[in-house]
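Quick start: read one record
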Amino acid sequence: MISPSANWKREVGIVLMVSAVNGALMAVMSKLMLANQEVQQKLPQESRDLMSDYWSGTIWIGAWSLLGVALFLLSRKPPPSEWDQRQGPRLVDR
């Protein structure tokens, strides 16, 4: 279950950022594994071509990480100096 109010943005942002880091690590490990000549010889020719598209993976991982960072930053509260002390955490009109 997702947390109430604005906490869901923070939690989903954290999940997306961690998932993007995990995806980046998996991409690096795949690249290192496929650089080995023994592994490439065991793969069929059709599979070798499918595992060389790194631009789409980079774009997807970048998009998910940017979305995660955006949600995480949107969930942040304003600094206490901008709060109205009488009414709680509301922005002070300037």
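The CA atoms of residues 5 and 75 lie 10 Å apart.
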